[in-house]
Amino acid sequence: MVGEMTNGGRIRQSFPGARDLTSTEGSEYGPVEFTREDVDALLHERIKYKSKYNYKERCENTMDYVKRLRLCIRWFQELELDYAFEQEKLKNAMELNEKHCADLEVSLKEKEVELNLVIHELRKNFSSVQVQLAKEQAEKLAATGSLEKEKEARLAVEKLQAALTEELGKTQGDLQTANQRIQAVNDMYKLLQEYNSSLQLYNSKIQGDLDEAHETIKRGEKERTGIVENIGNLKGQFKALQDQLAASKVSQEDIMKQKDELVNEIVSLKVEIQQVKDDRDRHLTEVKNLQAEATKQNDFKGTINELESKCSSQNKELQELQDQLAASERKLQVADLSTFEKMNEFEEQKESIMELKARLEKAELKLIEGEQLRKKLHNTIQELKGNIRVFCRVRPLLSGENSSEEAKTISYPTSLEALGRGIDLMQNGQKHCFTFDKVFVPNASQEDIFVEISQLVQSALDGYKVCIFAYGQTGSGKTYTMMGRPGNPEEKGLIPRCLEQIFQTRQSLRSQGWKYELQVSMLEIYNETIRDLLSTNKEAVRADNGVSPQKSVGKTAMNEQSSRSHFVFTLRITGFNESTEQQVQGVLNLIDLAGSERLSKSGSTGDRLKETQAINKSLSSLGDVIFALAKKEDHVPFRNSKLTYLLQPCLGGDSKTLMFVNITPEPSSTGESLCSLRFAARVNACEIGTAHRQVNNRPLDNRLSLG
């Protein structure tokens, strides 16, 4: 790629294999030339559409516009890399010229010293010759010869000095020309930075639109949570009504028993009253008979009085029994009324239960529709953002590290377009600015990290291939991000939190007819040897040289406990919906890469040296694969390392990939942090293709696909 600046200030660039700015087809349209007017027109271009309500057309026009912007950005990035390379080349040439000039000056000084010594010696000889000239004529001739030799030597020295002066002038002219070229490159670089800033502003605007879509998803999640809570409340009310119904039935049975007891008591009381009436009638008859006889015989007056008193007591007893009968009849009426009320309440509760069942069915239907909408919106956002996203996480300073304000090398911009996404690094007085999809400050919690990737984990359940890996120098917090701290629930890493989310979602989706099968593998890549950490066969996981894999953590000058191997956690998911007969297959890869480090700084020797060389080689191969995919090259070097060969299914262009770049704020690690950020920036600019959902509408073989 060759770039040039014409006299009119127009930037022209030939981009072999690039497509036209207004085309959405492939890359066969030939080279493209960008000018400043082209870039300005692209930045100020307004998307045209026939109808503002045709969202499909608006989405297609927006996607086409984003693709052209990405093409322009990619062109600027590659042009910037070429200018940086040319600047570095000129700097090296200037350094060589300066070194050459310095060597010439040193050589010239040495020659001058030697000549001065010779001149001094010759002058001594000349003085001695003059003294001897008065004494001997023969010595005069010898002194004259020496003088001629001295003149010849002086002339030779003057010629050499003139040649050196001419060469020095020529070198200084070359240096001045190089400085002018460097100044021109710097001016061009500043211009490119301005264009890049304008593009970043527009990218921030697009990011705002994506954030609004995120807010829509979050609102949908809140509504979904509300519906789930409402369903739970309805289920609780339904259960409470069922309990009340059961209690009403028990109460009704008790009332019926009491009613039966009262009826029996009334019957017995009626029998007793009848007996008392019969006794009263009998006694009245006896009284009448006795009164008739009393007229005849006055001797029976005492007996008559006794019988009258007995009759009076029996009348009182009869009145009491009648009062008890009336009270029992009143109790029976009250019991009948309570039974009627309970029956009415039972019917009302039955109707309420039927209404709650209908509301529950509607809520479950809304929940299914909301889940489908969430999946659609999330996948749309992922396609707009690109398939390789980069999150940057800065670990806190550890005890013993320099925490003074003067030693701080990392800062975070507060501008609206870079807030939460930008990070600045100072090195040797020069500021390096980077922008990623998300930047986590040192006080960010493990929960904050997981919230940002939870929807990406959900994609694996929806049938997508997902790959999340942590990259960075040794000691930057990669293992803490992926695994967390054992024994502390609040500091759990991504891997245990992902498993918790998947199992919870798996349980909640059972009501929608989904059943999931999970298959887990845990692999370690140590010195280009793949080991199965879940294997029970100890011999199967031994290296070829017979070294046991029990210890994969070593000590270096940069980290007391440094991971010396790559850890790959893979979860293969197969889901089947019995009602729709739909089957999905997803893969979730969570990777803790070994720490990158410089041999000169890590101080590795022996086995540690071999481990470091193997680690750096595999990480370099990973970068080669990502860049080859981004450039859509015909050959992608997956087989250059065991790491890239193992990840080929999830880096092949149809997966959702996220990279965590972990850096340390310690001032002594600024160089390594800068290298990591530069690599992450290049990865963030890569597009490896659109992710595809693995769905089949008919039952498949029960064996899990390896993805």
TrEMBL record:
- Tell me the ranges covered by the Kinesin motor domain, including all copies: 387-686
Q: What positions does the entry give for ATP binding? A: 472-479
SUPFAM superfamilies for the chain: P-loop containing nucleoside triphosphate hydrolases
Spans annotated as Disordered: 1-29
By its UniProt entry, which CDD domains does this protein fall under? KISc_C_terminal (cd01366)
Keywords for the protein's UniProt record, in alphabetical order: ATP-binding, Coiled coil, Microtubule, Motor protein, Nucleotide-binding
Entry coiled-coil feature ranges? 76-139, 252-380
Q: Name one GO cellular component term.
A: microtubule
Judging by the UniProt lineage, the source's domain of life is Eukaryota
BP GO terms, sorted: microtubule-based movement
Which GO MF terms does the UniProt record name?
Answer: ATP binding; microtubule binding; microtubule motor activity
Q: Does the keyword Coiled coil apply?
A: yes
- Family to which this protein belongs: Belongs to the TRAFAC class myosin-kinesin ATPase superfamily. Kinesin family.
Any idea what this protein is called?
Answer: Kinesin-like protein
Q: What taxonomic ancestry is recorded?
A: Eukaryota, Viridiplantae, Streptophyta, Embryophyta, Tracheophyta
